[in-house]
Specification:
The protein has about 200 residues and is mainly alpha-helical. The protein folds into two domains: about 160 residues, Orthogonal Bundle (Jann2411-like fold); about 40 residues, no CATH class. About 55% of the residues lie in helices and about 5% in strands. The protein binds zinc ion (ZN).
Amino acid sequence: MNLSSYAALAVRLANSAAHAPGEPDPLGSPAECAGALGDCLAGPVTRRDLDVLRYVRAEFTAIFDAAARGDDQDAMARLNALLVQFPIQPEMTDHDQARWHVHLASQGSVGDRFAAGAIIGVALTVSGLGVSRLGVCAIASCPQVFIDASPGKSRRYCAEHAAARGNVSTLRREPTGLQPQSPAGQAKEVPGRATSAAS
Ligand SMILES: [Zn+2]
């Protein structure tokens, strides 16, 4: 398990605040929370877990907002505070005959474990990609956050709106991408492969 992939938990948690008007807050009750995040939670949710998750959700929202407006200092000060409050307990494991690798130890409350995983995930993601990869959807009315893992750092929309706009951008890109510089250009690039493919 790549610990940076836990950053997806932070995105899910932050975006749980963007519930539709009239719909219950996914962190409003243990039952709602289990329905929204149960697949990532290590057991039954208590009231204290809800308090922890609501607090961390607000902090993640503030971190993504700060990063999106270029205030790296504020974003990282908040992340540092979370790292102190929700320390991880790493351990080595070789489950399922995989090579030995780092896991998070199974200890602490449900809320604390979720928070610690999400926080270290964001920290490692920032380390690998940069603070500017934490984004807020470019649609003004949409508060949803995302992590931009695109090679060209080109992402602007949350998952929901990126999916809605994906077809448009693909159609726009394709014509330039598919046209070779010259008819012979492609054959010259990989003569070895072209020969072996033909034989
Ligand atoms: Zn959006």
